[in-house]
Amino acid sequence: MPPSTPSPSPSTPQRSSIPSTPSTLVSPRYPAPDLSSLPTVFILAAKLASDRRDALAKWLVEHRAPVTYDVHKARIVLANVERFARARLELRGLGLWTEKAEAEGEVSGVVKSVGGVKEERGTSPRKRMRVGEGAVRSGKAGREGKRRRVNEDLENDLEAASPRPPASTVTAGSDGETTASDNSISPKPPPNIKVIKLHWLNQVMATSALLPYTPYLIYEARPVSRPSTPTPAIPSTTPSTPIPSSPAPQPGLAILQRAREDALPVKTSTFAPHGSRRFHTFHPTKHTPKLPARVTTEYEGEDTDIPPAPAWVRDKLLFSCQRRTPPNPPNAEFIAQLGKIKHARLLTDDEIGVRAYSTCIAAIAAYEYPLRHPAEILRLPGCDTKIANLWIEWRNTGRVAEADAADSDPDLQIVNTFYNIWGVGATTARDFFYRRGWRDLDDIVEEGWSSLPRVQQIGLKYYDEFLDGIPRAEVEAIAETIRAAAVRVRDPGIEILVVGGYRRGKEYSGDVDVIVSHRELAMTHNLVVDVVGALEDEGWVTHTLLLSLAASERGQATLPFKARVPGGRRTGFDTLDKALLVWQDSVWEGMEEGGKKAKNPNPHRRVDIIVSPWRTVGCAVLGWSGGTTFQRDIRRYANKVRGWKFDSSGIRDRRTGEVVALEGERGVRGGIGDAERAVFEGLGLFYREPWERCTG
Fold first, then answer.
1. How far, in Å, CA of 144 to CA of 149, rounded?
2. How far apart are CA 345 and CA 1, in angstroms?
3. What is the CATH number of the domain that holds 687?
4. What residue numbers bound the domain in which 631 lies?
5. What domain count does the chain have?
6. What letter does residue 349 receive in the DSSP assignment?
7. CA distances from 232 to 237, 292, 394, 410, 664 (A)
8. Is residue 33 part of a domain?
9. Distances (CA, A) of 459 to 198, 279, 339, 419
10. 604: β partners
11. Is the preceding omega at residue 33 within 30 degrees of 0, hence cis?
12. What would the pLDDT profile of 168-181 be if each residue is shown by its tens digit?
């Protein structure tokens, strides 16, 4: 039976913690329920319309609940999200950094009952991390977006095991800004914050009763100080002395044969485990933002040098799918510097920073003129004075200090080495280094090989080969082999198209993506199984990393709206039948002379076979042909502008859940390219050639 809520004393200040399980309160002067006993409440704006948020706040005030619009003063945060990681990320976006804490009044190891289910509390001790200067191999440009989609879909969604900042007390000042102080002079840590699902408030409103919050608790948040990240100084107008580049990797050291280097003393990383986040949303205004005073004295040229704004800038087209983005933009060198910073944000668990830099990179890549003035940057979506100052620094010195710091940071070098293992995402790469203490690939082989999933073992085994680019001629040969196998197991009506980086015109691809289709629906049912079996029999496939029949299992229908896989987790980056393979050319010169024991010298390649029914093949091609930001913006555009949910398996109306058949009920009469054009037209977009979708 829940304990009753104690009556507050008139001299007692407003309470700063939630009562354990409050009973229903009824007041003769106010309609039930009376919420005056609640601590200060803040409603998170994420995934919530502003008018809905205001209506909820008004209802709370009418029922005597203390409401604040300053998250730093809140003790209850109502969030319209489900997962801890998303809630924590949204709070960071408001400047409030938190970590999971034990519920107030509880200690580690105590069994807590939530909705009748017992949950063990406690954390595992962290392992001391080691830092070395082993050879580090950088990832290939353009591979990062695809790797993130595939790797994060395959690996478990582990919480980033990053070193936490030193214990300190965080207090909220009168202006709501948090400050940190040493524990020796701070007598009491700040109270924890209950982050609760908004559904709790909906139930309170529906039942007119103050319900227990525990079943709706997302997490108990302990405020912590924001991890410090060094801010590069803005250089003077005189170019500085060039910064020595990091030593090149030693090619003679093979990753699985060389002896382990002696352990070095622990060094302090330039980048914090969680990088600083700067998410700049483009809000069109009548006035151009002003640059800091230092910028106006550190560039050459006048405002008259600014060329006229492109049409997409004048029309304030925010989505990258609405504009042309060529493969070799005029500002490629500066974009490369921003790409280094974005990659560092990815490795340091800064999702908002990754999105922000992705947006500004895509905008600058689409800008058709060489940048000559910082005011040009300020008028681009997603770009503000931070990006303008980075451009000033790069123009004056030919370098960007923040990008150089990312390149030379020893911790990031090690995490990046792990990230380049196929099947390992950024979260697992950080776990390898910060929690398990591994500092090179040999450590993984010697200390953790048996604990790795099979796909990560294969990614480690062929580490070097997977990092080598695949030339276009080899991509075409692989695609033709796949087409021939598909024809043998079905009929000559098979149609294929190579997508990914190859279709965008890249000379070298990180992997090979091939879409296979047939105009008869029955022919694509379970086709991927038969194709992979034929390729394995002929010796082309050495390992099958993933074989998914997601589409065939649901009758090859478009993914249902708000679909989830068993276990409650949302579906991954793609919902078509597909096979992720390790490929090796089974023919080589002199193979007959060596006999059966001859070793195949051909490199192992990563190959993805995607099977799509003909009626939605245009969506499949569009979903696999653009750069990462282009693909993200196609989905955002379909949602924000059309009210649709775009998926590689088709499109559904978010209001009704019905399929939107942009390609017709049975598909287009023309070819695969015509199907993709029909999707562009149905979305209300101008068709962009694949090489005009190079957003990065």
1. 9
2. 48
3. 3.30.460.10
4. 468-561+570-692
5. 2
6. T
7. 15, 15, 12, 18, 54
8. no
9. 41, 33, 24, 11
10. 584
11. yes
12. 333 334 333 334 44
